[in-house]
Amino acid sequence: MTETTPYDADRARFTRQALARLVLCDHAVAVADGAAGLVATENDPDAGPGGRVSQAFQLIELAERALVSAVTYERERGSSWAEIGQYLGMDPAEAEERFAADLDGWNTAFDVPYRLDDTGLKRVPQLPTAAYDPVSACARLDTWAGNRLVLVNDEHPVSSGLTMAAPKP
Asked: Which of 31, 23, 5, 38 is CA-nearest to residue 141?
């Protein structure tokens, strides 16, 4: 199924590296927002027994997604498995094996943008949302960063640093 998507033209303005970086930004926001939920104590009585453990455990899951996104981004920007493995404390072959399926899924999503859901009726985008609709992701992430990052003086703190695709002649 190699049909077009509603966001193909917008996505074409971005490099794959930029799309991977947007996905990493999006996952980092999820981690930050999840961690922020553990800071205030006022609602502790409303969390059932074990509730805060559940929130902390969810952070691990969110951080794992962020790690996969970081590896994808690093591969898109040309980092070697040796460089990635060094920061993970594993040899290059182990790093490549650990993330191979995730990278295969990332690469395949550019060729097969949709899969059918279990009913066979609804098309489900294969790319993460931030890469599928990068223009909306840029706006949302720029706003998030502008509102929360204290020392950022950039009107577009996320999108201004992305590597964009060369315009087509």
From this structure: 23
59-105 pLDDT tens trace: 999 999 999 999 999 999 999 999 999 999 999 999 999 999 999 99
Query: Contact 134/14 with Cβ under 8 angstroms?
Result: yes
- Above 60 in pLDDT, residue 2? no
Distance separating alpha carbons of residues 28 and 64, to the nearest angstrom: 10
Specify the pLDDT at position 58.
Answer: 94
| Other Cβ atoms closer than 10 A to 81 | 20
Angle at 23 between CA 19 and CA 29, to 5 degrees: 140
CA distances, 56 to each of 16, 53, 75, 102, 119 (Å): 32, 5, 29, 24, 34
Query: In angstroms, rounded to a whole number, what is the distance separating the alpha carbons of residues 61 and 63?
Result: 5
- Residues with Cβ within 8 Å of 169's Cβ and at least 6 positions away in sequence, in order, are none
By residue count, the chain amounts to 169
pTM of the entire structure? 0.90
Q: Cα–Cα distance between 97 and 69 in angstroms, integer?
A: 15
